[in-house]
Amino acid sequence: MEKPYIVFLTEYEHGLGSLEPVYKIFEKDADVDATLISCRQPLNLERETRGLCGENFKLGPILVDRKPDVLVLFRNWWGPENDVGRMARSLNIPVVMIDHGMIMVVGPIRQAYRSSIFPATVGCLWSQLHLNMFRRVNSNDKLVVTGNPLYDQMIDYASPEIDVPDEFALLLTQRAQQGILGKSAEALNKIIPVVVKTHPTDDHKPYYRERFRVFDDYQAMLPLLYKAKIVIACLSSAWIPALFWEKPIFIHHDYSYYDENDLKFNEFKSNYSHIFNFKQDNVWNNDVIDNAIRPNKKHFEIFGHIPDGKNAERVAGVINDYIER
Questions:
Q1: Per-residue pLDDT reduced to its tens digit, 40-85
Q2: Could you say which of 61, 146, 241, 306 would form a disulfide bridge with 124 (CB–CB 3.0 to 4.6 Å)?
């Protein structure tokens, strides 16, 4: 009898941060075969495969060793992952999704795609808040709070060396609202050096590279958050680890953007004004920085679940529920 076979797939490199810790659990299991594929667009022209390699079974746009018992995805709704997921479900292969980001505000346009997690069979979410927000647009699908496996390494974290100033502000970019973030960062840079971690799909990377020290590698995210003095961003899943390390977070908000997309930003601001510094202007001085609201580890738990280093184990448990051994 063949061993159970699990295929992990992510379209974007930053998905590896969430998938790798779970893959490594099964990689060490002598009773399971596993493959991890990083597949970029255009379909299947660039791919990196770890673990069991093979091309005997076609699963949408990718080839794997044999028919998987379980497929694990990161960005379940789009691109190659969606194509592979749909093929898997047509073949009665269970699909486990580790959500690529966390819902902060709900709007009928912005979150419409989350009304179904298809082709996923079950979704693994980052926190109880994540589940509560998800349920506002999705009342039917199977969702489980596991925590993000990326966060397991934050326990007793030892940051690798990274080329940054001794003291700096970290800017986390987004696909939208580049105007408000860029202007604020330029003003802040006159007081404290600004280092930038760009969003994987940010179209404005040349703008930031002309003005700041820029990182776009997903592996730089945790070291940058760990070493930064403050973090500036819009609403973003990326700053959640900064809560664990008790870094002041300045959330920039452009009401016109949220109003246009019918997003309930005021609800978020009202609920969490004791955790974050909300900012609409570009005025910076030492007083603003030194007297900023500072979060704590209890605040991290609201967004990032229990910091016990067992998120990957919980996701592995979900996967095991679909494996016959």
A1: 654 444 578 899 999 999 998 889 999 999 999 998 999 889 999 9
A2: 146
Per-residue pLDDT band at 262 (split at 50, 70, 90): low
Would you say 70 and 223 are in contact if contact means Cβ atoms under 8 Å apart?
no
Task: Let me know whether 95 and 192 are in one domain.
Answer: no
Residue 218 and residue 131 in one domain: no
Residue 215 inside a domain? The answer is yes
Rounded Cα gap, residues 220 and 168, in angstroms: 15
Q: Please, are residues 259 and 266 in contact by the beta-carbon 8 Å criterion?
A: no
Residues in Cβ contact with 244 at an 8 Å cutoff, skipping those fewer than 6 apart: 151, 154, 297, 300, 304, 307
Residue 48 CB-density burial (10 A; 0-12 exposed, 13-18 middle, 19+ buried): exposed
Q: In this structure, are residues 144 and 125 in contact, taking their beta carbons and an 8 Å threshold?
A: yes
Residue 225 has pLDDT above 60, yes or no: yes
Phi, psi of 218 (to 5 degrees): -60, -25
The amino acid at 225? L
In our burial notation (b when 16+ CB lie closer than 10 A, e otherwise), range 247-268 reads bbbbbbbbeeebeeeebebeeb
Q: Is 58 contained in some domain?
A: yes
Q: Is 18 helix (H, G, I), strand (E, B) or coil?
A: helix
Tokens of 323: 């494996």
Give the DSSP per-residue string, 157-180: --PPP----SS-EEEE--SS-HHH
Domain range for residue 22? Answer: 5-152+308-320
Query: In this structure, is residue 161 part of a structural domain?
Result: no
Examine the domain organization and report whether 295 and 315 are in the same domain.
Answer: no
Q: Which of 161, 63, 81, 164 is nearest to 118 (CA)?
A: 81
Do 109 and 212 share a domain, yes or no? no
What does pTM read for this prediction?
A: 0.93
